[in-house]
Design brief:
The complex is a heterodimer of chains A (111) and B (118). Chain A is mostly beta strands and 111 residues long. Chain A contains no helices and eleven strands. Chain B is an all-beta fold. In chain B, the strands form two sheets. In chain B, strands 2, 4, 5, 6, 9, 10 and 11 form a seven-stranded mixed beta sheet that branches. In chain B, strands 1-3-8-7 form a four-stranded antiparallel beta sheet, with no helix packed on it. The radius of gyration of chain B is 14 Å and the shape is globular. Classes of the chains: A mainly beta (111), B mainly beta (118). Chains A and B meet through strand 5, strand 9 and strand 10 of A and strand 4, strand 5 and strand 10 of B.
Chain lengths: 111, 118
C-alpha cells in the first residue's frame, strides 16, 4: 500500500524567509503532484512532476522530484503572506490512476 | 470553461436520512474521482471512474455508500442511511488521460460538498 508522508505538518515562518516542505512516499511511482488549499476552499493544482529530476517553478514556489529517493520537495523563496495555505503532495500509484494524498502542510506566513 | 461543478455546496441532514451528492466533470475529461476530506483522516479516495465505468471502489467505507456515473457528464455519490461519522467535505475531481491512456495530468477539483449529519 502506497503511503505518503509530508513534513512538517505545520510551518510558521516570517515573510522574506526561505523554507522547504518534504514529501516522502513508500513505493515506486511515476507521478507526483503538488496542490494548494485555502481554508474552506477547493484544491488548486500547483505542479505536476512526471520524471526523475523534474524541477518546476512558479513564482516563489519550486518543486522537484527524486524518484530514486522517493522524495519530492516544495521550496518557498522569500515567503509572502499570500502563500499562507495548506499544501498537499499527491502520489500516483505505478500503473494505476489512484492518487494518494499526503497529510498536508499548513503554512502560515507571519508579517 | 466551467470547472468541476458539485451540488449541493452544503447539506445538513439527520442521521438515517439519504444523502445524494452530485458532480458534473469538465467536458472531455474521461476520469472522475470522489474524495472525502476530514480533519482526522485527511483526503481519502473513495472511488474513481474511467469512461463512466467504476475502476476502483476499494475506498468506499461501507455498503451505505454507492456511486454511479450514468453518463460522461454526471456522477452521484449516495449515502443511505447517513451517520454522523459521514460528516466531511466530499470532493469530486476530473482529469483527462494522455495519449497513452494513462493519467498524467492534474486532477481538477470541484468546490466540494460539505456534509453535516446530526
Amino acid at each position: 500500500e502506497l503511503k505518503v508522508e509530508q513534513n512538517p505538518l505545520f510551518l510558521s515562518m516570517q515573510e522574506g524567509k526561505n523554507y522547504t516542505i518534504y514529501c516522502n512516499y513508500s513505493t515506486t511511482s511515476d507521478r507526483l503532484y503538488w496542490y494548494r488549499q485555502d481554508p474552506g476552499k477547493s484544491l488548486e493544482s500547483l505542479f505536476v512532476l512526471l520524471s526523475n529530476g523534474a524541477v518546476k517553478q512558479e513564482g516563489r514556489l519550486m518543486a522537484s522530484l527524486d524518484t530514486k529517493a522517493r522524495l519530492s520537495t516544495l521550496h518557498i523563496t522569500a515567503a509572502v503572506h499570500d502563500l499562507s495555505a495548506t499544501y498537499f503532495c499527491a502520489v500516483g500509484g505505478f500503473g494505476n490512476e489512484k492518487l494518494t494524498f499526503g497529510t498536508g502542510t499548513r503554512l502560515t506566513i507571519i508579517p | 470553461d466551467a470547472g468541476v461543478i458539485q451540488s449541493p455546496r452544503h447539506e445538513v441532514t439527520e442521521m438515517g436520512q439519504e444523502v445524494t451528492l452530485r458532480c458534473k466533470p469538465i467536458s472531455g475529461h474521461d476520469y472522475l474521482f470522489w474524495y472525502r476530506q476530514t480533519m482526522m483522516r485527511g483526503l481519502e479516495l473513495l472511488i474513481y471512474f474511467n469512461n463512466n465505468v467504476p475502476i476502483d471502489d476499494s475506498g468506499m467505507p461501507e455498503d451505505r455508500f454507492s456511486a454511479k456515473m450514468p453518463n460522461a457528464s454526471f456522477s452521484t455519490l449516495k449515502i443511505q442511511p447517513s451517520e454522523p461519522r459521514d460528516s466531511a467535505v466530499y470532493f469530486c475531481a476530473s482529469s483527462a488521460s494522455g495519449t497513452g491512456g494513462w493519467l498524467t495530468g492534474e486532477l481538477f477539483f470541484g468546490e466540494g460538498s460539505r456534509l453535516t449529519v446530526l
